[in-house]
Amino acid sequence: MSLQTFSADSAPPAVPFVVAPKLDGDVLTIVIDGELDMATVHLLEEAQRSMQGRYRALRYELAGLDFMDSAGLRTLLAPPDCNVPISEISIHHPTRAVRRLLELRDLQGMIAG
Fold first, then answer.
1. Which is nearest to 35 in space by CA: 56, 19, 55?
2. pLDDT in the model for residue 42
3. CA atoms within 13 A on the CB side of 104
4. What range defines the domain where residue 60 resides?
């Protein structure tokens, strides 16, 4: 499943936003490309909810994530209606800009790859 959308009242985002969740056993991997901000965070939340209760660990692949604001970071760390402990959330291949945001928030320990 891949989610991409924008409202009819607005122009499509300059950078396409894609969220692709994949369940492998009890590990949910979510690939995120584009810009994760307050305008697109609802798409990530939708993907997280669609797999609710089916995973015990959460892995984010962020090699294609060009930008993330605090709303995006909050959603990565605290998925809605999710009981996954933060120790079971990992971030893989963050871009330089995303890595910098994680470092500023003292979250570089979550980077697994």
1. 19
2. 94
3. 10
4. 18-110
What confidence tens digit (pLDDT) does each residue in 66-93 have? Answer: 999 999 999 999 887 777 888 899 999 9
Instruction: For residue 43, give the 3-state DSSP assignment.
Output: helix
- For residues 69 and 39, what is the distance between their CA atoms, to the nearest angstrom? 10
Query: Does 36 map to a domain?
Result: yes
Contact predicate 82/50, CB 8 Å: no
Do you know the residue count of the chain? 113
Q: Could you give the CA distance from residue 4 to residue 63 in angstroms, rounded to a whole number?
A: 17
Q: Give the pTM.
A: 0.83
When divided into structural domains, the chain yields a total of 1
23 closest CA partner among 44, 2, 47, 54: 54
